[in-house]
Design a protein that fits this description.
Elements (H helix, E strand, L loop, with lengths): L1 H5 L8 H7 L5 H10 L16 E4 L9 E4 L1 H17 L7 E4 L8 H12 L2 E4 L5 H11 L3 E4 L1 H13 L11 E4 L8 H10 L4 E8 L3 E6 L6 E4 L4 E6 L9 E8 L10 E8 L15 E3 L4 E2 L4 E3 L2 E3 L1 H8 L5 E11 L2 E10 L6 H16 L5 E3 L1
Helix pairs in contact: 4-5, 7-8
Length: 374
């Protein structure tokens, strides 16, 4: 109905014609559709009894989206995740620890299925404490860890408390997703320092579309789009016109049970300079710096545009900062930031750390941002 209303059909002459004539799909449209046609919306290719997988988004930017897949769509997405693992040099015989809860979120269910497809031993960590997960890794000699970047930091912190040397665990690869930290140099370096001998390997995807990218094996911090599964575009989010840096737009090619055409992901990316092929031999679209931020995550503080990833890049440089929280508030029509930082137990100079962080933020953003320790 949407395409008919836009006056487009099957007479597509080229990809340029497709981009010029076909409308974008927004998350707001999907939410509205599911509200009007509960519980799954009207964007289903087949009768309901053809669908065997249910997942939903985290709902961090509104109501969660419910998403259904047929066996064929699930198989195609599993192969895309298998490509992520192959690029990370995960092979049959590896023992992969999945340190997450098995809830309705899509990503790590697919990762589990893909690792199984490759012939890996899959170690499910759902329902376990961090200490229990570390013991499971140790006892089963896990070689690969799948988790979010911040949880990799947290596991290392718990390992120190439990007197478990992360270097002794033998983890060679940490596949991270769910947050931008894997492509943020300071966060990446922090994780690799806490897990000696392991390489961080970034990936990103979305429940609505599936696994989208994997890190370049030859260039850390660069993501390759899995073009066998997606037609990708980059647009200026304000004008909708093609751009080398802007919002990532995806059309699914293999998830035919619940397809999306020209979906506005909200992810901000930058096309890597230079022609194909890449150093790794791939010719797919490369995203320099990974996911740079979200269209809806930017805050403007006294005229300065600030993204969460930019703050993280600064904070993760400080080994004495165990964790941090950014608080955003509006006072007298002005947006203000303040930071709370948690020093590690061994920090010898808490006041000095606070001053160093405050100075680093001022140098980076030319703003005085209050910093408190907790």
């Amino acid at each position: 109905q949407k395409l008919q209303a836009a006056g487009v059909g099957f007479d597509v002459a080229s990809l340029a014609d497709y981009a010029a004539r076909f409308p974008f799909t927004s998350k707001a449209e999907l939410v509205t559709d599911q509200s009007a046609n509960p519980p799954y919306g009207a964007n289903l290719t087949y009768p309901l009894n053809c669908y065997t997988r249910f997942h939903q988004t985290s709902g961090t930017s509104g109501a969660p989206l419910r998403w259904l897949d047929t066996p064929e769509s699930w198989d195609a997405m599993t192969e895309s995740w298998a490509e992520v693992l192959r690029a990370a040099k995960v092979r049959a015989g590896d023992r992969v620890m999945f340190a997450f809860s098995f809830g309705p979120f899509l990503g790590f269910w697919l990762a589990f299925a893909a690792a199984e497809r490759l012939g890996c031993m899959c170690l499910p960590g759902g329902g376990l404490s961090s200490a229990a997960r570390l013991r499971l890794m140790r006892d089963n000699q896990a070689t690969v860890l799948c988790c979010t970047p911040t949880y990799a930091l947290r596991l290392a912190e718990v390992a120190a408390t439990e007197r478990i040397a992360t270097a002794s665990l033998g983890v060679k690869t940490i596949v991270v997703a769910g947050e931008p930290g894997g492509s943020i140099p300071a966060t990446r370096a922090r994780i690799e320092a806490l897990w000696p001998g392991a390489r961080v390997f970034d990936h990103h995807g979305m429940t609505e579309v599936g696994p989208v990218t994997h890190e370049c094996p030859a260039q850390p911090g660069v993501l390759h789009v899995i073009e066998s599964a997606y037609h990708a575009e980059i647009i200026d989010p304000a004008t909708g016109q093609p751009a080398s840096s802007g919002e990532l737009i995806l059309t699914t090619l293999t998830r035919t049970g619940s397809p999306l055409l020209r979906y506005r992901t909200g992810d901000l990316v930058k096309c890597a300079a230079g022609g194909a092929p890449c150093e790794c031999g791939r010719s797919s679209l490369r995203l320099a710096g990974g996911i740079l931020g979200r269209v809806d995550d930017m805050v403007i503080v006294r005229g300065v545009n600030i993204y969460p990833a930019a703050v993280e890049e600064i904070l993760r440089r400080f080994a004495d900062v165990a964790e941090y929280q950014v608080q955003v508030a509006t006072a007298t029509a002005m947006t203000e930031l303040r930071l709370e930082i948690e020093p590690v137990d061994r920090c010898a100079d808490v006041a000095g750390l606070k001053n160093q962080v405050r100075q680093a933020l001022e140098t980076a953003f030319n703003l005085r941002i209050p910093v408190e320790t907790v």
